[in-house]
Amino acid sequence: MKSITIKGSERESVGKKATKALRNAGKVPCVIYGGEKPLHFAAEELSFKDLVYTPNAHTVVVDLDGGKKYDAVMQDIQFHPVSDSILHVDFYQLFKDKEVTMDIPVRLLGNSPGVRNGGRLLFRKRKLAIKALPGNLPDFFDIDISKLKIGGNISVSTLLKDEFTILHPENTVVVQVKAARNAVLTEEEDEETEEGAEAAAEAPAEGGEE
């Protein structure tokens, strides 16, 4: 998984006055959990742009004064209810031998024939929660929908791998194509329908001969 570096400085004072002064200076108070003790630091609000305002998932390298660096993932973020400025960010420290839980975005690849024929694409899960070692965290789940017909779906069961655990039931639908009133069948689907109709028509006739 790609990583973003956020430069900051450790905070000695964590009181309300010090926190307010930081925010007035355009900085964001942050905490890293998961280590021996919580680590308080502050960073420029602009440095969070590529981490927060993106659909992508990233790990973070927190680069503090004095050369101290910590691998982490963003765990929680608080915004001002009016201005939408960032008020506070919590991180969770990563360790190579310790699994972490993270939401991974889903990307759809290709064009669904079911949609081309008038079906409605329902993107049920745009992110999937997984548990994995930091080195096994994927950037995306790529799902090919180029063969997804009307009535078809793709579930979590098709995305399973040994490198991580997906924290959703295997039958969870990620994307599907539902029929719409103006939907039309493909030639292949037409043939299947005609064959089914012919078989249904022949069945009573065979029964009558007996």
TrEMBL record:
Name of the featured protein: Large ribosomal subunit protein bL25
Sequence ranges assigned to domain Large ribosomal subunit protein bL25 beta in this UniProt record: 99-181
Family in the record: Belongs to the bacterial ribosomal protein bL25 family. CTC subfamily.
GO cellular component, one term: cytosolic large ribosomal subunit
Role of this protein: This is one of the proteins that binds to the 5S RNA in the ribosome where it forms part of the central protuberance.
Keyword tags: Ribonucleoprotein, Ribosomal protein, RNA-binding, rRNA-binding
Residue ranges annotated for the Large ribosomal subunit protein bL25 L25 domain, each copy included: 6-91
UniProt organism field: Arenibacter echinorum
Stored Pfam families: Ribosomal_L25p, Ribosomal_TL5_C
Region of interest (Disordered), ranges: 185-210
One GO-annotated biological process of the protein: translation
UniProt keyword annotation of Transcription regulation present: no
SUPFAM superfamilies to which the protein is assigned, alphabetical: Ribosomal protein L25-like
CDD domains, alphabetized: Ribosomal_L25_TL5_CTC
Biased composition (Acidic residues): 186-197
Molecular function in Gene Ontology: 5S rRNA binding; structural constituent of ribosome
Quaternary structure, from the entry: Part of the 50S ribosomal subunit; part of the 5S rRNA/L5/L18/L25 subcomplex. Contacts the 5S rRNA. Binds to the 5S rRNA independently of L5 and L18.
Low complexity composition-biased segments: 198-210
